[in-house]
Amino acid sequence: MAKTYDLTNGSPAKLIMKFFFPMFFTNMLQQIYTIADTAIVGKGLGDNQLAAVGNMSSLTFLIVGFSIGLTNGFSIMTAQYFGAGNRKNLRQCVAASAVLAFSITAVLTLLSIIFLRPVLVLLQTPESIISDSLIYGYIIFGGLAANIAYNLCASILRALGDSKTPFYAIIVSTITNIIFDFVFVFGLKTGVEGPAAVTVMSQLVSAVICFARIRKIEILQLSKDDFRNTLSMAGNLLKNGIPMAAMNSITAVGCMTVQYFVNGMGVVYTSAYSACSKYINLFMQPACTAGYTMSSFTSQNCGAEKYDRIVSGLKVCLSVAAVSYIILGSVMVFFSGELASFMLNGPEQIGLASIYLVRCGIMIFAVDFLFVFRSGCQGMGKPFLPMISGVLEMIMRVLVIALFIGKIGFAAAAYAEIAAWCAALAINVYAFVYFIRKKTKHDKKEFHHFALRKC
After folding, report:
1. What is the pLDDT of residue 210?
2. What are the structural domain ranges in the chain?
């Protein structure tokens, strides 16, 4: 039988790092094959096709980000039941998560395909790239079930302390993706439909690998009885899942607004922004992984009511985020030109991307720390304030890009990101401190009441 991993006992630092590294390599591989996709499209098909694919990034995040937030929200309860040792509720939770996830997938797939063209028009997508954007989008959204299947299975495994299996799945998926990208683009001479189809196929491969591992975990052997309590369990799952999903989608709306203004400047700017977005996503991965680790660690320990361990876990994860900032922020600042040249061909696009990367590289610590504090709040089953921070992120992006793009041009896109990160960080730091103090005080009161009764 496959192993599960208890994060409620033992050294927090050792447990966190053991959990962190497989997940870190998983996330980095995902980003690397996204970068590879972008480079292959840019070098193999041209800057216009790169702009078409990149133009879909914020819209894809709106849909896919919603589903990721949903499955991650579900996994909070899974981890809490596992940490509490409640196997019956654990199985019912997993059963209800699967039913909910795939019901919502069907709705998201239908809506995203129906409204793709109107949204692209609304975003001021240049006429020269709208056809390729539609082709790419229809394939990606048509295969949304594969993406959600992987995220659901991976989140369940991580809730049980297994970050290795998703890593192995992504290794296979990445190799599959890169090989077939080359085959479709350079061998078969396809357009953007080739990389899109390969992305869906790779996600399906990773989902199958994770599902096969879940089938081997003894405590997750589901029966018909586990599906009978789906409705009552669904309500509790949605209390966590919907705010986390909404937070991602609200953030995506802010990104889409920035995309709208950038698109209005022309294809050159769309290409530069596309490349920059890929690098930002890549270089925030160590801290993002520290956030996911914090979420699983917090969830299990919250279920076990070991709140002091949560604070210890926070310190470890913040240290990881700080090291990430020092190393990768420096790369963004000092090697911005080389990074831009790797994806882009035109000198104007490269110049624009270089300026963007320097500005964001200096301030990327804000989003690095944001991931850790926000995940800590969510892991305690407190998703509301993090969702509010997503609203604030959207507002800051919209305000900054709308007010300053006419004055400072493309640089406003970078400042919009920075403003959003800083505002969201402030709310999540406050929320984490508030909730952990509240939990700790409650824990101490319970202890005193228990001690008095014993006396």
Report:
1. 94
2. 12-454
